[in-house]
Amino acid sequence: MTAVLSAPVSRSVRPALGTAPVCDGRSSAVADRGPFIPALAPVVGADTRVPVTGGSVAYANLDYAASAPALATVASDVAGALGEYASVHRGAGHLSQVTTRRYEAARDTVRAFVRGRADDTVVFTRNTTDAINLAAHITPGDVVVLDIEHHANLLPWCAPKEGRSRARIVTACDTIEDTLVALEAELASKPASLLAVTAASNVTGEVLPIGKLASIAHRHGARILVDAAQLVAHRPISIVSHGIDYLAFSGHKAYAPFGAGVLIGRSDWFDAAAPYLAGGGATADVDLGDEGTTWHSGAARHEAGSPNVLGAISIAKACEALADLGPEYIGHHEAALCERLDAGLAAIEGVRPLRIFSDSTDRVGIAGFTVDGHAPRAVAEYLSSEHGIGVRDGKFCAHPLLKRLGHPEGAVRASFGAGTTSDDVDRLLNALTTLCGNAARTTTTSRPALDEGYPA
Ligand SMILES: Cc1ncc(COP(=O)(O)O)c(C=O)c1O
């Protein structure tokens, strides 16, 4: 990412000198876009300045969907825990006991935040990708999945198990309603163990009706896994009331630094499966003779090796902070910013928002779009180098979806959350207005899309 920030802007999309609104972080309003919307909560690094052509500006972070900045409260809580940091499950010393208690308590905090069942197993993983790979490891039988998924919720199901791919891929329809019908038809056609769906698209932000999907899966004897990577920090989620069997998410998209993820769900599949990793911590007894190895049940079975304790604590602190903020307030905040962004984008000729479903009514703080005549990579470079705005470009690890949407070459994505203000949104709109108002256009870029080198 550093390389991107310091990369020279593609000359072909740089507006004529003097037209780029190099600003100081407050909007140099080209249009009156409405009253100021402040951040909902302070995030670390909100006042970071970044280099742009001719100087520096406050960074406008519109890339929350890739990794959200840490909430200030989370960072300070984790810094406190760092002062007492020691090994987990491996020491009799006082700090090892403190750290072990914190690590185990983190499971309870996560379970409470996502309203899990009391007997759900909570496994800390590296990230959502790892969590869904673990889910694929413990899931017996066929899995029904849509073609619009992030690769993390597609490829693990396609990987051969017992000599064959057990993914049954359903093509999403133009409406959510028809997509539910198509999924139901597939589940009814022959038994499947699991329906694996994303809760919110990482390309368009559209939210799927998880409760309805769970009912459909259960009606046909399947369980449901929800990829909540893009939902958990944006909307209240309840395993119990939505009827979710397994839920996966990442800390780094939920204001929790230090890289950890979660898979939470029904314990029987966790306990029936072979350990995800073989090694210390997962074993009750190891005998190289006839007795063989006895493995733990529960989370420990799949968490061999020293865990990422700060990552887990960080997720727990983020869950507490999000609960304090009130997920419904986060939803209102994002809705207000989305409305402003959508109205602004609609007014810029040449900007084309991406949408999967014509009947979707709810969206988290994500806006995917293309700009006529400008390669996505070039737009992202221009926004960074000329305006200090960070967005994502590429295929968002959702290649089949981008092809379906008619943009196999990729698109641009702006995304936001609790630390975003209306000035961040206005700066993006002003920059795109300037770009689209300038005739010089390109369809080529000097660099490959980030997907080729970066995963998120
Ligand atoms: C919907 C969705 N699922 C899964 C992932 C993978 O998350 P991670 O990179 O943390 O494993 C992402 C990341 O962008 C995502 O947006």
TrEMBL record:
Pfam families: Aminotran_5 (PF00266). Residues 61-428 form the Aminotransferase class V domain. The keyword Heme does not apply. It comes from the Bacteria. Its cofactor is pyridoxal 5'-phosphate. The keyword Nucleotide-binding does not apply. It catalyses: (sulfur carrier)-H + L-cysteine = (sulfur carrier)-SH + L-alanine. Keywords: Pyridoxal phosphate. Belongs to the class-V pyridoxal-phosphate-dependent aminotransferase family. Csd subfamily. PANTHER family: CYSTEINE DESULFURASE, CYSTEINE DESULFURASE 1, CHLOROPLASTIC. This is Cysteine desulfurase. It comes from Gordonia paraffinivorans NBRC 108238. The lineage of its organism: Bacteria, Bacillati, Actinomycetota, Actinomycetes, Mycobacteriales.
